[in-house]
Design brief:
Blueprint (H helix, E strand, L loop, with lengths): L5 H13 L4 E6 L3 H14 L15 H25 L2 E6 H6 L1 H12 L17 H4 L3 H7 L12
Parallel strand pairs: 1-2
Length: 155
């Protein structure tokens, strides 16, 4: 729920108040740099279902900082809104869903109090490392060294 869209937030608040038995699954990424890179490639290629390509991108350290900070803020605002509304929610991550689909499925089943028969494919859309995607990867690592943003670079 983008923070700048008050009309959307008001609509969401109204919807939740009318549907107080609603349960929300919040899906996020642990690696916010990979999230940004994936979205940027999808926008460049106009391909949102399979971003596995040979495209390389150039990023700036300011661009990375701005995007990661904005994403963290929006994620916090989403959780704050759900908490304020008293909405039942559970959080799962893309990485957990990809690497431990059965564990996540069990978590979702318990949360929804139901049995699911099918879990959609969690095939990774991009298999290259960040170093193979970001043309100035090494430069960015030097610029962002000893900052909190380093945690998002491949180890």
């Amino acid at each position: 729920f983008p923070s700048h869209d008050n009309h959307a937030i008001q609509g969401i608040e109204y919807f939740y108040k009318k549907n107080n038995d609603l349960r929300v699954i919040v899906l996020t990424r642990k690696n916010l740099l990979k999230r940004y890179v994936s979205r940027k490639i999808a926008r460049l290629t106009k391909n949102y279902s399979n971003t596995n390509s040979s495209v390389m991108i150039h990023l700036t350290s300011d661009e990375i900082k701005t995007n990661i900070d904005k994403t963290k803020k929006e994620q916090k605002e989403t959780i704050d809104l759900l908490d304020t509304l008293g909405t039942q929610y559970t959080q799962i991550t893309y990485e957990d869903l990809h690497f431990s689909p059965q564990t996540v499925l069990s978590q979702i089943e318990a949360f929804l109090k139901t049995s699911l028969k099918y879990l959609p494919s969690t095939t990774k859309q991009e298999n290259r490392s960040l170093a193979d995607i970001i043309s100035n990867h090494d430069q960015l690592k030097k610029e962002l060294n000893e900052t909190d943003y380093m945690q998002y670079f491949d180890k």
